[in-house]
Each structure stands twice: as C-alpha cells, then as structure tokens.
Specification:
By secondary structure, the chain is of the alpha+beta class. It contains 5 helices and 4 strands, in the order H-H-H-H-E-E-H-E-E.
Amino acid sequence: MKDTLPILSRRTAVKGACATLGAAAFVGAMAPMKKVLEEISPEEFWQQHYQELSETDKLAVFARLEQEARDEYGAEVTITDDRPIPGTKFVYGVNLSLCNGNGKCMEACHLENNHDRATNQSYIRILEMPKGTMDMGKGNTTYMHAVPAEGMFYLPVQCQQCDNPPCVDACPVVATWKEEDGIVVVDYNWCIGCR
C-alpha cells in the first residue's frame, strides 16, 4: 500500500497561513506587555483611576509605594492622601527676574512628575528671548550655550494651574483633574503621556 499525503486545498492552505500570521502578529504585539509586566507589579498594572479607589484600596497603594521606597532607596516615607482644605485656593507665580535659563526647574519638574527619561519631556520649556520683546515667536527653547547670555532673558513656560485647565478636558484617559483648591493633578498610573 502506498502512503499518500492528504490533498490540501488552496482554501485550507490560505486559512493555515493566515492563522500562522495572526498568531505571529499576536505574539509580536504582546512582546511589549512582557517588558511592562517585568517593570511594574500586577497590583500597579491593574490599579484603578486614583479617584475611583476606595479608602482601603488607597491604603494598600500607599503601603506598596512606601515599601518600594524602602526597597529601592532605603528611605522611610509616609504617604497620605491630604484632601483640599476648604476655603483655600492655591495659585502659581514665578519671579522672572531670577530665571537665568539654566534648566534646573525643568530637571526638577521632570523628576517630580515622572516623565519619560528617554525623551526628556517636561511640562516646562524655557524660552530664551531677546531683551525688550515679549514675542514668543522669537523665543528659542533649544539653546545649548552658557547662560545667561548677553542681551537675552529667559521665560519659563509651564503648567499654570489654570482655573479652567484645558488639559483636564482634553485628557483622553481621564488621568488628570482639578482639585477644589486649584491644584491640577495627574494620575501617573493612567497617564499615557500624549500632552
């Protein structure tokens, strides 16, 4: 008796090829998830929006973050959820005469607000502008020389903690909101960094 291979129809071959390509695409698409899950805990990955957390959930998050600070930095920290103080309104001000363009405020903002280290994105940009003008179109944010430069002044442009912040309305994942005391808050676990 002669062994014969089963006859494969074109339709079956195309289905098999598509299934193989689909499986390969799925594995490729899931590869970044493996890296994400290596960098963060399952608790952090599945954490709800901060505003939706119960008091018990918040305490668990605080305990996890306090433990991370001990493990990573040897620091004893206490995390609380201080609520807005009734009748208090915070505002923002900057003394432009003290800005020398050195970018230290950008570095501090970058670290404080958990920005992507690779792209060095920040909520602050510093415009180097010719003295005597307020035309922001003449400002340069990419200067790389020693500062302060002769004939120039420096204008930091950053989050202004607006009364009606457009970022809150524009955020597609509701990761930012405004507290009653005027502070605009970002939930870093939900922010996708679209700015």
